[in-house]
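Input/output pair, single chain:
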Amino acid sequence: MSQGSDGGHDSRVGGDFTSAGNPERAENDRNRRSNDNPASGEHDGNGGQPDTYLLYQRGLSLLERGSAAAAAQLLERAAAAEPQSRSVLEALARAQFDAGWYAAAASNFRRIVEASPSDDYAQFGLGLALARTGDPGAAAEHLALAAAMRPNLRHYTDALRSVRATLSARNRLREERQD
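Output:
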């Protein structure tokens, strides 16, 4: 999940977006499946093509089993069918992040943040994705918002601390080079 020192990103900003190791994320997934279903039924009537909800469910299942790239493919189709579904966008962004497609993940997390700035998890995801794309300044802004909204979540504050450490180290290095 984390990029090595040759990638130039802080490898201490860790974690993935599967819900297997995160009870809160697993509960949110269950709630969203029941409360924000992009569609219902098994097929949409288009020649036996799977409907959006089925694509979403299959994508989440693949993501939870660690097949992020395959999940992203299904979730991209679901997002194309339901572009305003926050649940689908979040699942897609999580899959893209876990597949190492950080710019795409940042783009989708940003769409959620723009629609719902108080979504702490989207702020957190956007911050992590921006950190992985090499933009710790922007990452710190979103991680700080997430940590302020949910200070009791240690992984939010740990990620913020890590990105701030990266910024501090870069500033020290810049100052040393100027001397």
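Residues 154-178 form the longest helix (25 residues). The chain has two domains: 18-100, 117-179.
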